[in-house]
Amino acid sequence: MPPTTVVGNQDKSEASEIEPKIRQFGGQLFALMDAAEPPSLFSKKGFYGTLMEWSMRDEHFKTQLFRFVDVLPTLTSSSEVAKHLKEYLGDDEVKLSPALRMGLKAAGGMSWLFGSGIKAQVTGMARQFMLGDDQKEIVATLKKLHEQEIAFTVDILGETVVSESEADQYAKRYLDLMDLLAREISKWQRPCKSNESPRGQLPPLNISVKISALYSQIQPTDPDTAIDRISMRLRPILRRAKELGAFINFDMESYVLKDLTLRLFKTIFAESEFASGPACGLAMQAYLKDCEADLRDVLAWARERNRRIAVRLVKGAYWDYETIIAEQRHWPIPVFALKAETDANFEKLSVLLLENDSVIDAAFGTHNVRSIAHVLAQAERLGVARRNFEFQMLYGMADPIKAAVLKMGCRLREYCPVGELLPGMAYLVRRLLENTSNEGFLANKFAKDVSRDDLLKNPSDVAADVRRLQSPPSTPDTRPFHNEPHTDFTLARERAKIGAALKRLRQNLGKRYPLIINNKPVSTTDWLPSLNPANQKEIIGHAAQASITEADSALAAARAAQPTWARTPAAERAAILEKVAALMHRDKADLCALEILEAGKNWPEADADVAEAIDFCNFYAAVMRDLGRPKRTQAVAGETNVQHWWARGVGVIIAPWNFPLAILTGMASAAIVAGNAAIIKPSDQTPVIGARLMGLLIEAGLPPGVANLLTGPGGKVGAHLVGHPQIDFIAFTGSKEVGLRIWETAGRTAAGQANLKKVVCEMGGKNCIIVDSDADMDEAVVGCIASAFGYQGQKCSALSRLIVLADNYDKFVERLIAAAGSLPVGPSEEPGNVIGPVIARDAQQRILSILDAGKKEAKLAWQGSVPNDPNACYVPPTIFTEVPSTSRLFREEIFGPVLAVSKAKDFDQAMALANESEFALTGGCYSRSPVNIERVKAELVCGNLYINRTITGAIVERQPFGGFKMSGGGTKAGGREYLENFLVLRAITENCLRRGFAPVEEA
Ligand SMILES: Cc1cc2nc3c(=O)[nH]c(=O)nc-3n(C[C@H](O)[C@H](O)[C@H](O)COP(=O)(O)OP(=O)(O)OC[C@H]3O[C@@H](n4cnc5c(N)ncnc54)[C@H](O)[C@@H]3O)c2cc1C
Fold first, then answer.
1. Minimal CA–CA distance to 336: which of 415, 255, 402, 418?
2. Which contacts (CB < 8 Å, 24+ apart) does range 813-816 have?
3. Using 50, 70 and 90 to split pLDDT, how confident is the model at 469?
4. How does strand 390-394 pair with strand 878-881?
5. For residue 633, what is the enclosing H or E element?
6. How far apart are the first and last CA of the chain?
7. pLDDT tens per residue across span 917-950
8. For 916-980, what is the HEC assignment?
9. Fewer Cβ close by (within 10 Å): the C or N end of the chain?
10. Does 219 sit in the ligand 1 pocket, CB within 6 Å?
């Protein structure tokens, strides 16, 4: 009996024995393939062949073409099709390579290629890879495969579900499909040879399921609920599979779902009802660095239960996506960097599967002749019968290889996606990318005529060669600033940290938090409790309430400390900020827990806020190191001219509660690192977070008096300081009402005032997103929901006006409402909840009264339900439609989970409506029209514009954040220029000419 596991790559002697065998099998396969027609996609003639050829010759054409293909099914009129075709491919602006442009001209231009009936052509192309949704056609195609001795597995397209009703529908489609196919298969005369294994007959009905389609609200923070809900919809499918004797396979999707899929597989198939059936299996992706560990774990699970399962080994379909997403989030990249490394891992894991033949039905999902030949050679070496395992290939792909594999006496199964064209486009584009990938086997074999020898090379050698030839790692990353990554909550250890931090916090609630002046605690007679918005009986802490007397002492402390601090070298000041960032990183889980309980943020929102605070410290430190160096303005003989920055003096920082750590830290750290002293006034709602920040500043070594914590009534002490002649600047983020008052007060010059006051003022927004008629609806629904209801809509960047083009309006609003209705609502400390309470009782009452008034202005299209808890401050998320642009709902900032939806008859009207606002903070557009996207870029009036994504969640340095009009003074938090608001620029000129000569460097 073979060993249960295999270790590492083969050594040299093993490789030299097996390599000739692999080449022999490869040669046989190639010879058999020669006898077959090349795949039409690579024929270099006709519609598809030409497109594929051009795509491989010109990356830009490929991008434009595939984007056009992606949007095509949503276009309902021929004029729209023509418009998009021109925008993507027909315009002179489209930068095609000169050769391709000439080729196109010679062929008669795009009109030749796309002429009339372009939709039919692309539908035809899609039909090459998918079976469509006509039952008769599906059955006929599967029967044909059956007759060719090819087994099948069927997958239903359209896995992107945005609501629970869509997940229900998806699950039902599986049940219906299974019934249909079971009925039809029973009529087929004889079993398909590819379902005959030496161990017996395999189930002819084989179904592939994407688990993400069975629950619309999978949250990385809460895999337990996801498992629960997916299992709920999966059980009837498994039950029916058991009754019908069908086989169920779990497909493997993106990395974020990998652990969940593995856990679900092991949990549900261990349930007593399914412990012995139905037959089951799952796909595993060799491009993942942790695939081997996962596979070993699955093997151990199967052995422990003595349960035969199938494993479909694939390389993985989301390589680009995984790489891009990990890079964007600064997470470790989970996939191998080199194609040859993936191939080598596929080979290594193929051996592992064959070695475990006694418990595993191995399936190798590949169209690569080398990978196939390797399996055949290793099976022979290990004495595993060829029909013990199977090859799997995709419907419509690599037909000559399929023919060859069958002729070699192997079992073959085709993966057949069924469903409508629209949801199938993502699948089509994946297949087109795969077929035209420069690194892919298919393009190399069928389009580029790479030699057989090269195609059969050992991937471990190829990887080693590539690594050797690779230029030494490009210059090390010396950028002075890197963003703090958001936490990957798919990792159990990260979830556990928050759980533990919440427990720790609960043991420390209710403490008193004094003022801090000159780094010393100052108690007052008045203390204000800070309450958990999800439970107003729970006191997070008591904050000392400053009076004018303490405000004046804080100001005196700041004035005394500031001159010395300003003369401290910029690098030293920056180092303290970097220390604060390091301390925040150390305390990340505790700070998150505090935000969850004090501000009602859910886990990812709290985590993002802490990460942003860390970013502000590190970023402003890096910028100050640079600004701290005097810069020469102009080189001129005999004179030095430099300019350098000086601190403004003493300021007051007035922060809101909605980003309780990030905004407070951002404004305070910018002021301080610039050499100013500050009085920090956190919001009344989140004073404990303010006290934590102050503690970290002291721990990091900030000298006494440079920052002073002053909690207390804004209307009294805040106003007193804003108007005080010894205050040089004010940094404020909050409501328009208070912001305008501060702006006005600061503009008045009091007797004895030394400086004109600088006001850094960031106020609200009434932000809008336009959903174009060609938008990707799946993405737009999810993005709009997140933008509108993230942190209960209590973000100045939140979406509150949604403008949907008439063509899409009804369907879009229906899906939007269904998606909103699926969001989990409840206390933010429960990890799966997306929507929590609003910040406080008065906010709750205010929003509820606006909702009441709103019902008279517009149509209440939907209102969610919230827990009936008198101690919590919930506001039901609400969507209004038919909202007139004159209404309060359309014009006023609400700062709650309320969305006003308007219909626009065309894009012109949508733009006009969008710009009808006194605010200009964030804005967005979902569109796949390059022209409309350009127009939005040029014309949408807002400080931060986001296209085809959410409009919240700006990242420090990447998206400097801030608006204008009534949204603010045009400053950009998290941008390089932000610090300049806290500085004044001095120019120094020195005449170096003495007695007719000057030092050389100045000459
Ligand atoms: C029956 C079947 C079922 C499938 N089910 C799934 C599934 O459940 N989940 C899933 O993700 N995929 C699935 N796939 C898709 C599969 O992952 C791709 O078809 C497969 O990766 C193509 O590999 P190949 O051996 O045919 O081609 P090759 O051309 O040899 O390999 C292409 C693959 O190499 C990898 N690759 C490309 N560039 C790089 C690089 N620079 N560095 C590292 N690796 C790279 C990628 O995985 C890419 O897909 C399935 C495929 C089949 C045939």
1. 255
2. 813/861, 813/879, 813/881, 813/901, 815/162, 815/163, 815/166, 815/777, 815/781, 816/781, 816/784, 816/785, 816/879, 816/901
3. confident
4. unpaired
5. none
6. 86
7. 999 999 999 999 999 999 999 999 999 999 999 9
8. CCCEECEEEEECCCHHHHHHHHHHCCCCEEEECCCCCCCCCCCCCECCEECCECCCCECCCCHHH
9. N
10. no
pTM here is: 0.94
DSSP at 72: G
Give residue 317 CA to ligand 1 midpoint distance, Å.
Answer: 5
Decide if 401 contacts 369 (C-beta within 8 A). Answer: yes
Indicate if ligand 1 lies below 6 Å from the C-beta of 317. yes
- Residue at token pair 């939140």: 798
Ligand 1 closest atom vs CA 316? 17
Please identify which of the residues 291, 592, 796, 873 carries the catalytic annotation. Answer: 796
Angle CA 114–120–121, to nearest 5: 50
314 lines ligand 1 (CB under 6 A): yes
Contacts of 176 (CB under 8 A, 6+ apart): none
Binning pLDDT at 50, 70 and 90, where does residue 104 land?
Answer: low
Catalytic residue among 762, 829, 893, 957: 762
Q: Which of 282-286, 423-427, 448-452, 553-557 has the lowest mean pLDDT?
A: 423-427
Judged by phi (left if over 0) then psi (alpha if -120 to 50, else beta), residue 953 lies in left
Distance CA 717, CA 704 (A): 21
Question: Is 166 known to be catalytic?
Answer: no
Whole-Å CA distances, 132 to 168, 192, 778: 21, 23, 20
Whether 985 contacts 645, CB under 8 Å = yes
With a 6 A CB cut-off, is 152 part of the ligand 1 pocket?
no
Please list the residues that pair with 362 across neighbouring strands.
Answer: 311
In the chain, what are the helix, strand and coil shares in percent, each to the nearest 5? 50, 15, 35
Dihedral sign, Cα of residue 34, residue 36, residue 41, residue 45:
positive
Helix axes 59-71, 421-436, angle to 10 degrees: 170
pLDDT exceeds 70 at position 96: no
The token pair at 676 is: 């100013």
Strand partners, 645: 985
Owner of token pair 């502000």: 616
Residues near 839 by beta carbon (within 8 Å), at least 6 away in sequence: 533, 599, 600, 657, 658, 685, 794, 873
Alpha-carbon span 862 to 154, nearest angstrom: 37
C-alpha 846/C-alpha 737 separation (Å) is 15
Residue 294 reports pLDDT greater than 50: yes
Instruction: Assess contact for 722 and 652: CB atoms under 8 A.
Output: yes
- Which residues have a Cβ under 8 Å from the Cβ of 98 and sit 6 or more positions away? none
Q: Which single residue is written with the structure tokens 């989140």?
A: 686
The two structure tokens encoding residue 987: 């120019």
420 noted as active-site residue: no
- 699-723 burial: b if 16+ Cβ within 10 Å, else e: ebebeebbbbbbbbbbeebbbbbbb
Residues in the chain: 1003
Q: In this structure, are residues 899 and 788 in contact, taking their beta carbons and an 8 Å threshold? A: yes
Q: Across all residues in the chain, what is the average pLDDT?
A: 93
**CA 950 to the chain's CA centroid:** 10
Under DSSP, the state recorded for 703 is: P
| Distance of alpha carbon 867 from alpha carbon 789, whole angstroms | 16
Q: Evaluate: CB of 431 within 6 angstroms of ligand 1.
A: no
Token pair belonging to 165: 């009703």
Q: How far is CA 489 from CA 216, 495, 833, in A?
A: 18, 6, 14
Q: Which of 315, 442, 466 to mutate to test the pocket of ligand 1 (most atoms within 8 A of CB)?
A: 315
Rounded CA separation 526/472 (Å):
64
Ligand 1 binding pocket includes 698 (Cβ within 6 Å): no
Question: With 80 as the cut, is the pLDDT of residue 93 above it?
Answer: no
